[in-house]
UniProtKB/TrEMBL annotation:
This is BAHD acyltransferase. It comes from Malus baccata. InterPro entries: CAT-like_dom_sf (IPR023213). GO terms for molecular function: acyltransferase activity. Transmembrane segments: none annotated. Gene3D superfamilies: Chloramphenicol acetyltransferase-like domain (3.30.559.10).
Length: 442
């Protein structure tokens, strides 16, 4: 009988900054975009093989905690707590560090990653309301029997988008390597550019419908990606990106699944998140901390539309976003424009006659370069699964493919995961590495 994989929490600590936050930095203003961000945690899990035979678990854990404490000194708002959705009290209350033991080999899990078990590598549930007033940063270090390590990070979405999460983890790893001063966060720009407002009376909210959903992992490797790009190339888009190509495939197959499961066609929209740091005028530093993200949406009234046409529509929407969104974020009516923008998205999401899909990409974020001193990760992933009609895209370790988690309703997923067009390019939850050997150090 196969052993049931189990994670046992062995330690839970509060990690405070290595140096107290100066008095003049005690009150950190959220930006308007932070205020409007959903109450949730942004997750990331990094898996490291055992490249450090002879280095005890306790030694690695101490290094993680020491470097985390030092990193919090530079990322001081993360050790504080949000007050009234307006500012962070930088009181050095600390981040949460959880340590756990896994009664299994890392290779056993990576052979076919189980989504429900994957969530156990996170220190808190992604949808926890603690993201509004509780710890802004939580970390979980899970050590496998073989010496492999999973580092799960949850970062309050009220302060950070995916770029900020990546910036922090890179800075933490650099600190662990003794070169932490190479990553310098910018904490001032977001609130200056997008000043916070008093929403004590009413706040425009994007209330996403939380329905029962199924989450599956699909991987398009390098060779299949080249085939997919060739398929979606057209006169209007001669060089499609990986994200455009994969989004068109996911969207097309999801539309088809929805039509077959419901027996009727619906208007369908897909929304893609966009980093606006370099797009607004004047641009912000790439190291600016906050929810500096915009969205463009594409709509179609039909299923069965060719993939290259979907890519063409997405490219057109992206160009329009780049040309017009920065203009909307300037001038005296910026506040009204942003609030109206969020109200419009929220209204669309609540409509039952529209299938609304959300895509988030963290491709090209350099996640596979994150080294705490024991080598680079063998796999990195962002577990989602709390909302349906959501796709999260990441690089494969070779950086030429896409590793995606996709959440749909049970009825739609049953059709989606068997779609011949999808399976012509994507593998369903393949092994992270091949081959798996019993003597592996994983």
């Amino acid at each position: 009988m196969a052993q049931v994989m189990n994670i046992e929490i062995t330690k839970k600590e509060i990690i405070k900054p290595s140096s107290p936050t100066p008095h003049y930095l005690k009150r950190f203003k959220l930006s308007l975009l932070d205020q409007l961000a959903p109450v949730a945690y942004g997750p990331l899990v990094l898996f490291y093989p055992n490249n450090v035979n002879g280095v005890a678990t306790e030694e690695r854990s101490q290094q993680l905690k020491k470097s985390l404490s030092e990193t919090l000194t530079r990322f001081y708002p993360l050790a504080g707590r949000i007050k009234d959705n307006i500012f962070i009290d930088c009181n050095d209350e600390g981040a949460i560090y959880v340590e756990a033991q896994v009664n299994s080999l890392l290779s056993t899990f990576l052979h076919q990653p189980d989504f429900d078990f994957l969530k156990l590598f996170l220190p808190i549930e992604v949808g926890s309301s603690e993201a509004a007033t509780g710890p802004l940063l939580l970390v979980k270090a899970s050590f496998f029997e073989c010496g492999g390590l999973a580092i799960g990070v949850c970062f309050s979405h009220k302060l950070a988008d995916a770029s900020t999460l990546g910036l922090f983890v890179k800075a933490w790893a650099a600190t662990s390597l003794g070169i932490g001063d190479t990553v310098v966060p910018d904490f001032s720009s977001a609130a200056i550019r997008f000043p916070p407002r008093d929403f004590s009376v009413q706040r425009p909210a994007v209330e996403m419908k939380i329905g029962k959903c199924v989450t599956r992992r699909f991987v398009i490797d390098g060779p299949k990606m080249r085939d997919l790009k060739a398929k979606v190339t057209s006169g209007s888009v001669e060089k499609p990106t990986r994200v455009e190509a994969v989004n068109s495939l996911i969207w097309s197959c999801a539309m088809n699944a929805s039509k077959l499961s419901s027996g009727a066609s619906k208007v369908s929209m897909v929304s893609q998140s966009v980093n606006i740091r370099k797009r607004i005028v004047p641009p912000l530093l790439q190291t600016s901390v906050g929810n500096l993200v915009g969205y463009y949406a594409v709509r179609t009234d039909e299923s069965g539309i060719e993939l290259k046409e979907l890519v063409s529509q997405m490219r057109k929407a992206m160009i329009e976003f780049n040309e017009n969104h920065p203009k909307r974020l300037k001038g005296e009516n910026m506040f009204e424009v942003i609030c109206e923008y969020f109200k419009e998205i929220g209204s669309i999401m609540r409509r039952d006659d529209i299938n609304f899909f959300i895509c988030t990409s963290v491709c090209n974020f350099g996640i596979y370069e994150i080294d705490f001193g024991w080598g680079k990760p063998i796999w990195a992933t962002i577990p989602g699964g709390t909302l349906k009609n959501v796709a999260t895209l990441m690089d494969t370790i070779e950086r030429d493919g896409v590793d995606a988690w996709i959440s749909l309703s049970e009825e739609d997923m049953a059709i989606f995961e068997r779609d011949p067009e999808l399976l012509a390019f994507a593998s369903v939850n393949p092994s992270v590495f091949e081959p798996v050997t019993s003597s592996s150090s994983l």
